[in-house]
Amino acid sequence: MRREPGFLVITGNVLLVLTALALSWTAVFYATEAIYVRLGWEPHALVVFLVNAALGFIVFGIGVMFVGRFLRPKQHRFFMELLEALRRISRGDFQVNLQTEFGRLNEKQRQRHPYAQLVESINDMAANLQAMEELRQEFISNVSHEIGSPLTSISGFARALKNDRLDREVRHRYLSIIETECIRLSKLSDNLLRLANLDSDRQPFRPSPYRLDKQLMSLILACEPQWEEKEINMSLEAEEVEVTADEGLMSQVWVNLIHNAVKFTPQGGSVSVVLTADDRHAVVRIADTGPGIPEQDQPRIFERFYKADKSRNRSAGGSGLGLSIALKIVEMHRGTISVSSKPEEGAEFTVSLPLTAEEGMAN
Ligand SMILES: Nc1ncnc2c1ncn2[C@@H]1O[C@H](COP(=O)(O)OP(=O)(O)OP(=O)(O)O)[C@@H](O)[C@H]1O
Ligand SMILES: [Mg+2]
């Protein structure tokens, strides 16, 4: 916002103009005096006064034009630099860092100077756009990679299937691999769509009161085929807890966490789900007896596409989006999600959810 000039600035400017006028009139007075002496002419006092006044103004005007000529290019250059920076940003070149004379000002002076603030805002905008552009490129390269690997595998096995001499068993194995890779691709596309919806305003957020213990119970039962197949000892310990949250979105969180626990736990292991509550939060702990997560990976597993153990993940199947979706949904509810794990001792994910959520808190 433009600041009004202070009293001192106005007084200073008025004094400057008056001094310049006085100097012009003085100069004209002595100059005309010398001319009259030279000419041996003694004009009437009124004529002297009028001539001096008029010439004084003319000299003053010429002086102002002269000084303005020196100042204008500087201002002009400044605005041209700004325009060029904005043009580069609009063309998608965000490597903009305007270095102007305002760099010499200290922090306080810069905050008071409207042009300095403008320059700083443009530099900040360019830096933010650059960071977003890098994220976008990383996202695209991750998506391409996640799509590329299953496609290579599908096309390889499809080519192999053209061989008529393959026996029935091998043919069946190849077809199963193709099917698994197709499921992986379709899950990836579902997750990408879900993330895009969560990132945009399209995702409806409708909290309503429901029983969290019942939700966990029914989701665990729905996953029974997966944990039964691996003979996993699944347990649920839950108090009666009512929360106000978006039931559909929260079920995505529990499914992602339970699927991970089952996926990473070896045959015959165990997974436990515990629900407790205090007067403000519901706390859900999902623990498994899998390989755990190395300490250096723990802060990063909630990032999009991040996988702690790439080789193990390849066989387990997954694109590294499940936890980032869970984090996003929990944050929409103003809750927290964290992990604690020691390698080879399993992992425990803890979600803390406020018991009440207000409509619209998602934004
Ligand atoms: N219970 C767990 N035990 C061991 N590692 C885990 C566990 N949960 C998550 N991880 C690690 O965190 C990474 C990220 O998990 P996330 O759920 O985001 O992705 P994913 O399961 O690999 O793929 P997706 O969920 O998209 O199918 C996993 O790849 C894995 O390395
Ligand atoms: Mg997962």
Automatic annotation (TrEMBL):
Catalytic activity of the protein: ATP + protein L-histidine = ADP + protein N-phospho-L-histidine
TM ranges: 7-32, 44-71
Domain named HAMP: residues: 81-134
Organism: Paenibacillus thailandensis
EC number in record: 2.7.13.3
Protein's UniProt name: histidine kinase
Keyword Metal-binding tagged: no
Every Histidine kinase domain range: 142-357
Coiled coil: 115-142
InterPro entries registered for this protein in UniProt: HAMP_dom, HATPase_C_sf, HATPase_dom, His_kinase_dom, HisK_dim/P_dom, HisK_dim/P_sf, Sensor_HK_Regulatory, Sig_transdc_His_kin-like_C
Keyword Iron part of the UniProt annotation: no
Domain of life: Bacteria
